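Design job #97: recover the sequence.
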């Protein structure tokens, strides 16, 4: 555009935070406001219009905004005289750099005007304070908007509504037959029964048979089963799947989980957490920090692989299949096969371990199986109610009282912050004579108190939820133990090994086959297992 020499050159900046606010590749409302405001200044002529579509003035720094960079460079080269925006928050909502942008534009000789606040000056200390307060209020509005959006999305999720995003394997979305306030169809999340069977199968292979994620992925690919996106399965895909809380019927919003929805539940809560525990236990950490129950084992004879330790040096024993060749008196060669648990520290460096190097696997397994069968005899002879009471040790708690006090503290802190913000607005608009420095001193303290109250409330809710889930967890574990007792003898090697890994914490073997067994917390919480531990010291 060309402009007469007697008119000021005006650049307009139009910005919206989301692409959903863009109308046919334009921002018409702000544009119309700026053009109407320009008509009140006959000496102005708009020579350029800069659009920022889907750019947050709060999340993005000035240096990260391409359009603002173009404006600043043009201002430095004196290509325009006036920058016109709909409101000052279109220029930015960050208290750390928006006042700096205003200062630089003024230093370049650019007049800053808004259709709502008028001219923005930066000549006196009071001007700087007013500009900072404008930006501070805009920043606060951004935070409130973010909270409202998050709260709205979470409220929808709390009601079981689908709010968009990736649909997990095992689910579909379908039209719910209703529309939202914008007239758009609302969709619901529903279980895809065919995929849900695959999800249940994956959790079964991990929890009941001890399979690893690589093995499961290869197994599904061999079966011709595809992922949600019709791709082959990978170990990372399996790990992401089992960590998704949606399979317990819970949606995730803002880092928090909703209450469970029965119509979305595919996996029981305890099975879900057990699978995560098993897979995470296989992470590449130091060997001494690993737990035997977390190993994925394929050799059916390696009943105690990952659980058995050397009683002399404390290192883990490895499973080994040996084939010995012997020549008989008649010259015939015969092969003998045997399975062993070996202490590799003893084999590699005799100075490190002074114990026995090799133990016959069959002999050690027999002792362990004897203890496991004895445990299951106790299970079948003890009433379930007695076992559950022994595990729970129920005590009265004051969770509800703590929750009530925590909620009151949050409300009081929110009220205090709201009062300060209201006073700041009144002072800014000249409605009330108040030293703004007092508000600046008090606001960080009140916000810190609010954050602390919110964190305390969240911790109280977590504790109450944990207490409420304790009985459910014990009931699940008790049911699992009874199921194991009924199926152990007839179970296949994978399942039998997994059951043993859940019951036993550690098996220690010393020279002369002196074996000591430590029961796991799961077993100990239902019985006093001292008798079992003593029985395990078999020579």
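Job complete. Output follows.
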């Amino acid at each position: 555009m060309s402009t007469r020499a007697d008119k000021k050159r005006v650049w307009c900046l139009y910005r919206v935070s989301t692409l959903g606010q863009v109308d046919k590749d334009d921002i018409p409302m702000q544009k119309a406001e700026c053009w109407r405001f320009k008509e009140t200044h006959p000496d102005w002529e708009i020579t350029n219009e800069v659009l920022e579509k889907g750019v947050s003035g709060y999340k993005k720094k000035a240096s990260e905004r391409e359009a603002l960079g173009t404006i600043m460079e043009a201002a430095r080269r004196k290509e325009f005289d006036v920058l016109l925006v709909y409101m000052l928050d279109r220029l930015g909502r960050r208290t750390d750099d928006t006042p700096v942008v205003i200062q630089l534009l003024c230093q370049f000789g650019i007049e800053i005007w808004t259709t709502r606040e008028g001219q923005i000056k930066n000549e006196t200390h009071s001007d700087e304070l007013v500009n900072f307060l404008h930006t501070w209020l805009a920043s606060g509005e951004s935070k409130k908007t973010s909270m409202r959006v998050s709260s709205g999305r979470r409220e929808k999720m709390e009601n079981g509504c689908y709010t968009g995003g990736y649909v997990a394997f095992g689910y579909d979305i379908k039209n719910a037959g209703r529309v939202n306030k914008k007239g758009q169809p609302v969709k619901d999340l529903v279980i895809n029964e065919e995929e849900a069977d695959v999800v249940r199968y994956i959790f079964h292979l991990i929890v009941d048979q001890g399979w690893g994620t690589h093995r499961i992925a290869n197994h599904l690919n061999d079966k011709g089963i595809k992922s949600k996106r019709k791709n082959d399965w990978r170990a990372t895909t399996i790990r992401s799947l089992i960590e998704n809380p949606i399979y317990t019927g819970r949606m995730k919003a803002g880092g928090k989980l909703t209450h469970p929805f029965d119509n979305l539940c595919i996996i029981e809560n305890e099975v879900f957490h057990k699978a995560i525990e098993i897979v995470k236990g296989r992470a590449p950490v130091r060997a001494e920090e690993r737990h035997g129950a977390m190993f994925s084992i394929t050799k059916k004879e390696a009943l105690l692989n990952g659980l058995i330790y050397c009683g002399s040096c404390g290192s883990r024993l490895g499973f080994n299949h040996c084939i010995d060749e012997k020549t008989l008196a008649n010259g015939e060669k015969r092969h003998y096969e045997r399975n062993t648990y070996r202490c590799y520290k003893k084999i590699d460096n005799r100075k490190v371990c002074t114990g026995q190097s090799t133990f016959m696997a069959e002999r050690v397994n027999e002792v362990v199986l004897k203890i496991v069968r004895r445990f299951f005899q106790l299970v079948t002879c003890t009433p379930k109610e007695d076992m559950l009471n022994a595990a729970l040790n129920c005590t009265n708690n004051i969770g509800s009282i703590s929750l009530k006090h925590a909620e009151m503290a949050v409300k009081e802190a929110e009220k205090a912050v709201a009062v300060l913000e209201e006073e700041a607005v009144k002072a800014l608009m000249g409605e009330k004579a108040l030293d703004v420095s007092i508000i600046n001193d008090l606001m960080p303290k009140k916000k810190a108190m609010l954050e602390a109250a919110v964190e305390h409330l969240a911790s109280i809710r977590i504790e109450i939820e944990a207490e409420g889930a304790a009985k459910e967890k014990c009931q699940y574990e008790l049911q699992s133990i009874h199921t194991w007792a009924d199926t152990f003898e007839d179970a296949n090697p994978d399942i039998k090994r997994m059951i043993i890994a859940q019951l036993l914490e550690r098996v220690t073997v010393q020279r002369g086959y002196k074996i000591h067994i430590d029961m796991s917390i799961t077993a100990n919480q239902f019985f006093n297992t001292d008798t079992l531990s003593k029985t395990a010291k078999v020579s």
